[in-house]
Amino acid sequence: MKIYTSAQMKRIEADANEKGYAYLDMMNRAGIACAVETEKAFLTLNEKVTVICGKGKNGGDGFVAAEYLNAKGYDVKVVLACGKPVADDAITMFDRMNGITVIDRQTEKEESEKAISRADVIIDSVFGFGFKGEPDSVTAELFAAVNASKAKKVAIDLPSGAECDTGKVNGECIKADLTLAISCRKPAHVLKPSVSYCGKVKTVDIGLDADAVQEEFFVISKKNKPALATRNPLSHKGDYGKLLNICGSKKYPGAAYFAASGAVRIGTGLVTCAFPDSAYSAIASKLNEPIMMPLPCCEDGFLARGSLDALLPAAEKSDCVLFGCGIGQTLGTASVAEELLKQTKCPVVIDADGINLISANINMLETVRDRAIITPHPGEMARLLRLSIEQVESNRILLTKAIAKQFGITVVLKGANTVVSDGEHTYVNRTGNAGMARGGCGDLLAGMIAGLVAQGYDLMQASVMGVYIHGAAGDLAAARFSQAGMTPTDMIKLLPSLLSDYE
């Protein structure tokens, strides 16, 4: 499923306009299309419709919808949420309305409340894809009244109050039963929390051509879920990759376990676990399949620089190196990180403390151009880019794409709706749930992605597949054990049966 940002939509509309498709005609077709879909979904004869309109172009769509439904014989009223329209095309459509009661919320509050409470269907056309921030107190009060109504609610393009590109909802937002995405879906239709305000999302075609946009944003969903390659019956373990898993420490042995288990369960042929020798008993006792490589460590139980004597030759023999889960941030691990990135030639997946170590000098990523995946959570991304977590969360899609493009790497920004980008193609994941917000889940994901890379999948393919299947395992675990009670260990146990759906 392809999605478009607000900037892309503006480009698409401008391109259509330059080719002779007038903005006024776009508005007319959008309004009529939304009215038709509303009628199909919720309306029967003699029902009452209230259309809540803003003063911009989205309000113009609402005026068209109101005129169309009024002509079809429905009892239609229009409520002006922010006064009379100011956008030229919206003014034209407002003036075209004939025989429809118009109520100005700002001067006729009581009448507007009646129009909302009496309605069988409410159409929301207050804010469009250009909205940012939060509604003012008067508009927020209106939205609260709409949400309190028992009427079915239809949002034109986006639920008013939701930000198009970030999915943020600040304050009151219309909670729709049906959102009619004009021309295509936008980030807010798939990102959290805005997706929870959309209800069912349906795309309405108004004849726009997307050729003006070259960048591609997609949603990973059940309709295009990834498929694992068919295994050759005459194959052996060497055919499914060799992964060097440099993860864990005396303090964080679980990170090595989860990462290695993810790689093994996703089908990697041979996994070697490299970790500080002080963590041997904690790690080796939980893992049967991987090869153990205990290495020199410092007094605190983290890898020492001397471990490079064994790590570098091992990396040369590997198809992929996973580095960072639970390794800590010390002088020793910093040296290991720097030399590994400089001297390895195979693909590298960098997670957790590996990313934190690189954040001291982000240009280290130049040494792994075209062969690295980084898998930060928002806090790690914030440290890497010298931004606040809020800034990262407000620009998840664009930041992920920008960093991927700048350094020629694949970026997996974890969180609600994990974003994956290689700088050219960007995906937003829809699997997963809040039960996965616990220690170990990120390590498991890193191991799964690295295992897929070791098996020969390209970096973007491995990232998209790993993210989707990881989220699906989380959803299965939540269904079996509850979001509160599920653990990453449950996800590992469920992976084998789940993977049969992807073979």
Detailed description of the structure:
It is a single chain. The protein is an alpha/beta fold and 503 residues long. The protein has 2 domains: 2-212, Rossmann fold (3-Layer(aba) Sandwich); 237-499, Ribokinase (UDP-N-acetylmuramoyl-L-alanine:D-glutamate ligase), CATH 3.40.1190.20. It contains 18 helices and 18 strands. It has an 11-stranded mixed beta sheet, sandwiched between helices. A 7-stranded parallel beta sheet has the order 4-3-2-5-6-7-8, with helices on both faces. α10 (308-316) runs parallel beside α11, α16 (441-454) crosses α17 (459-481) and α17 packs across α18 (488-499). The longest helix has 23 residues, at 459-481.
With strands numbered from the N-terminus, the spatial order across the biggest sheet is: 1-9-18-17-16-15-14-13-10-11-12
What helical percentage do the residues reach? 40-55%
Write out the CATH superfamily name of the largest domain: Ribokinase
What is the chains' assembly state?
single chain
Brief overview:
By secondary structure, the protein is of the alpha/beta class. It is built from 18 helices and 18 strands.
